[in-house]
Each structure stands twice: as C-alpha cells, then as structure tokens.
Give the backbone structure.
Amino acid sequence: MGVALPEAVAAELATSADDHLIQLLTPSGELVADEQFHYTGSDQDLVEDLRTMLLTRAIDTEGTALQRKGELGLWVQSLGQEAAQIGSARAFGSNDLIVPSYRELGVYLALGLDPLEFLGTFRGTAMVDWPTGPANLHLPSFVIGTQTLHAVGMAMALQRDGRVGNPNPDDNGAVVVYFGDGATSQGDVNEAFVFAAAANAPVVFFCQNNQWAISEPTTVQTPVPLYRRASGFGFPGVRVDGNDVLAVRAVTEWALERARSGAGPVLIEAFTYRMGAHTTSDDPTKYRSADEVAEWKAKDPIDRLRTYLLAKGLIDDAWLDGVAAEAATQAERLRTGCVQLVEPDLADSFDLVYTDTPEHLHRQRAEFEAYEASFEVNA
Amino acid sequence: MSTLTMAKALNAGLRRALANDPKVLLAGEDIGALGGVFRITEGLQAEFGRDRVVDTPLAESGIVGTAVGLALGGYKPVVEIQFDGFVYPAFDQIVSQVSRLHFRSHGRLSVPMVVRIPYGGGIGAIEHHSESPEAYFAHTPGLKVVTCANPSDAYWMIQQAIADPDPVIFFEPKRRYHDKGEVDVDASAAPDSLYQARIARHGTDATLLTYGPMVRTCLDAAAAAEAEGRSLEVIDLRSLSPIDDATVFASVRRTGRVVVVHEAARTLGMGAELAARIQAECFYELQAPVLRVTGYDLPYPPSRTEHSFLPDLDRVLDAVDQSLAH
C-alpha cells in the first residue's frame, strides 16, 4: 500500500500541468502571440540577428575544422544554440555585466567581438584569452557553475553602489550569468540561488538547457523542469524556447529590466539543443539517437528565422548570398589568424601569479631562462 | 599474459572487482553509456547494470559525499572524478569527512572507497585538465594516495585499492593511458603490496625518485644516461601515502645521490617530503644535496608552453649532472 501524497503537494510536483514554453516564432517560421511577452525589436534587428546567427555558425564550423587539423587543442561548439545566445545578448543594457561560461560564441559575436580575440584559449596560446573590451564582459569560467556565485557577488556590488532601483532606468544595471543544465546540479549554482534570493540581488540566471551534459540527459540531473527550481529558492523561473530568438530576447529583456528595477533575480531556462558534440573531444553517437537529433534539427533556430524573414520579404537570396560570402571571408580570416597567434613563452607566466612577484618566482624564472639559454649556446 | 593499454588494464581491473564482489559499485559523470571521457569504464554499465555503474548528476561534492553514505551502508564505491581540476568541489568531503570518519568514530566506522582521478598534463588540454593535486591529499592524514605508472600496476593496484579497508585516492596518469604493457590478467593475486615502491630500473650512480606519469620520463632519461656511461636507478614510488621509506632509503644508501621528479609544483610537493625524510635518515650516505625536477610554482600554464613546464628527459639529466658534480 502506497503512502498517499496530499493533493496540494502532488500539484506542486506535477511536471506537465503548466510547463509553458514561451514562444513567439514557431519552428515553421510563423509568429505566435504570447500573453506576457512581446518582441520589442524591429524587423531590421531580426535581419541583423539572422546575420549574426549565420556568422556564428560559420565561425563555429571553422573552429571545429581547425581542431580537426590540429591547429586548436579543443573547440566547444555552439551549434543549435545560436538563438539562445544571440537573443539574450540583444537584451543587454549598457550598465549590465555579462558573465559567460565556456559555450558563448554567439554572445561574443553579438557583442561585436573578433573571434581571434578569444581563440587563444582553444589554441593553447593563452590560459584564458579574454578580450580587453567591452569592459562589462567578465572572463569565461571552465569549472562548471562556479561563475554563478561570482555573478551574484557582482550584483551585490551593484546594489551597494546604488545602481539598482533608481527612478531613471539609465542609472540601473544588472548581471546576467550563463551556465548549462548540468551545472544546475552543482553546489555552487544552488548556493548562488540561495544568495541571490536572500539578497534580492539584480542577477539573471541564464541557463541554456541544451538537453545534454556531455553524455548525460537532463533527466540525470532532475525529474522536474529546471526553471521550476527557482520558485523553491524564492524567485521566478521561466522556460523560453531557446531556439526562438524573438522569445529569448523578450524574456531576457523582461528579466533584466526586472532585476535592474530592484525586484530581484530570475532564472531563465532557455530550452534548446546541443546539435553538436559536447566538445571536439566527444562522440555523441555513443549515447544519443539519430532520431532525437533529427527531431531537434526540425526546430533549428536559424531555419525558422530565415523562413520568416524570407516570407516577409525582409531578406532575399541575394542577401543570403552576401552573408554567406561574409561568413566565408570571416572563416578564412580565422584560419589565417589562428596560426598567426603569438606563441607564448613560459617565462612570461612567472610575473602573472601574484600582483607583487615574490623572490622565489624571480629565482625560478631565472632558472628557467638559464636552462632554455643553455640549449641556444650548445646549438 | 595480455598486452593492454593502461586504459584497458584499468577497465579489466574494474571489471574483475565488480565481478568478484557484488558490493563494489562505480559512480561518476558520464561513466555509463559513454564509458567515461577516457573510456575507462567502457562496457561496464552494459555488463553490470545501472545500479552498479551509476551516471551521477554533475556535482563532485555530491559524488563523493553520497559515496561516503554508500560505504557506510556496506558498499564499496569507486568514484570517478572526470578531471584532476574538478576534484576541488569535493575537497571538503574528502578532507573533512572521507579522511577522518575512522578517527571521528573512534575506529567504529571505516570508509572503504576509492576516488579515481585522471591527473597530470602533456595532453594539450585547456585549463583545469592537467593538474597534479596529489600533495593536497598526501598531506591529509587518513587518506591513502597511490598512482600507477604502467598497465600491470594499473590492473592490480585498482583492485587492491578497492579491497583496501581505508579510503584510497587513486591517481591515473592520463598522458600514459595509451601506453601498452604486459598484464598477467589470469594471476590470482597482485605481485606487490599496494604500498610498496618498485625499482623500475636498477642503477648505481644516482637514484631518480618518481611516480605516475614521470616514471616513463625517468626510464627514458636513465636509458639515455646509460649511453653516456651513467647508471641511474629509477624508483617508482607507487604509493605517495604511505611512502615506502625502506625501498627509498635502501636505494639512496646504494647510490648516495637523489633527484626527485614530479609534474606538480615544487613548493611543498612530494619532493619536499622525500628530501626531508632522506636527509634525516641517510644524511651520512648522501654525496650531494637531494635535488628536485618539478613543475614550476605556477598554475598549470597554457598548453602551448606545457613542454617548457613539464619535467622532461633533458631537465632530469641536467639535474643528474648537477648531482654528480658534487
């Protein structure tokens, strides 16, 4: 005989009742209305979004090719997640702080960054190749979920600096932090939720649920939809179609505006799909079905936006050809620029460990340089 | 005898442990269908089922913390930390709980579990994938810390670690996963105790003290030195805690000269402990100061400089020259 679950408790646990996926553009490229969320951008914004998504995919493809040729040690694909990344980036305000994880190529390109500015991480010429601008872009983290706590701390700093809840919205800022479905299991992420809720911190937790943490489906991490975790911590969670750039932008704009106004954190679950491997070191054919991949391919974020813009006459084949040519040029630039990245010298590492380098590291540097020089003399 | 890679030898050792003891279970990220990112557990979930080869949520503290509970419940968990640099979220569980439950419970509890950690550099990886954190664990009373250097040891040591009544941190040198060697998979028992060092090569002029990924480097150095008429002994420590002092001291007394080699940073690395023990016990037999060839005191650097960071044959022989010059 089973132990009965009180009805109210059962309702809380039900996973299908109200798992509303916020969507403004269907996979077949048709606009749909949502009661709460509306697209605020222009048609021209959407054309630019498609351009950025296409360029992201081209750079992503080239990154994979460069790894296969041995020019990169690793490449982390964003394939399939372009709308989640670019849609959310379109919502950033000038005072917002951006805390990426390691799979945010689309965010970087939406910010106008040159991929050669951050390629060194993957070529191994830099430990972390962190572009010098924009100043509000934090460096990426590679330990899963660790950055969510830093983001909350940054949001607490904004509160103390009087940058939240001012009457003039131009005076306000918030923090947006990226992480994945797997990261939601980490203690750090859960502690970040606790701290953000306790401090009512202006932070938007942007979770790209791409359905897979390497080989583990999201069901290994949770039996309930991830966005519903937020309510237990005391702040709202929403699930948005992560392959719908309009909906992602609308939801992220709402969440950031809410955070800036002083109303506290939001968890956004961008429901998307990792079309590629976890990284170039991974082989997804070992653990997921071709049927599943095909099912998601039909929901491709680029296809639906292209279909919509073509149908509306906002772009045409000539425009697409132009972007394809631009993508080819950028890919070529990446190929050429990759092998020209400056080779690092270990000697330069010794002064990076501390602000004020202690004597033993000066000695070790001298020891290293003398050792290297001994080969030059012998040669 | 079978010729196996270290990866396959570990897989065979885990399979045998699972087959021999129904209480053994494996847990970790991606160890099931994928067989782990290094394929160490390949095929084991299909063979032993999801209750014994468990794909865990992505949370290292959770992996180790729940393993403590499983161990207290009578199981023998063997957990996989995916990469060296990801063990730190589990550090509290390992250092504050795993290591001292026996002590805290006045000896009434034991935690027979194994934490497997692929470690070390040389694979061209990005940050956090090339670390050598062994000293943190060897420094912690209550933990046993071992590392294999060849396929035969990998096969036997993982089984011995699982059979051990105390918690064992099991470091696997990932750059050597594909090294091949002879493994007597049909033998009934391991050739050596888990905590016994091995003389990997006999020599008379100087002793190279090393472990894990650097054993092969030191063997290569010893082979090169032989061409120059120098006879180097190579000791593979195998166990970093406890240390097999007897084997170490006996070698030092024979050669009088010691170079310790490890990838980990120099300050308070294993070399520091070994040098202290050797000078205390073999002071009058030493012909030269104990020297160390190690990683520098830096965070593991960008992969395109790792060849400069990692001890290699030339740096080892350079130190041997310095030792012999005394």
Summary: Residues 17 and 28 of chain B are 17 Å apart (CA to CA).
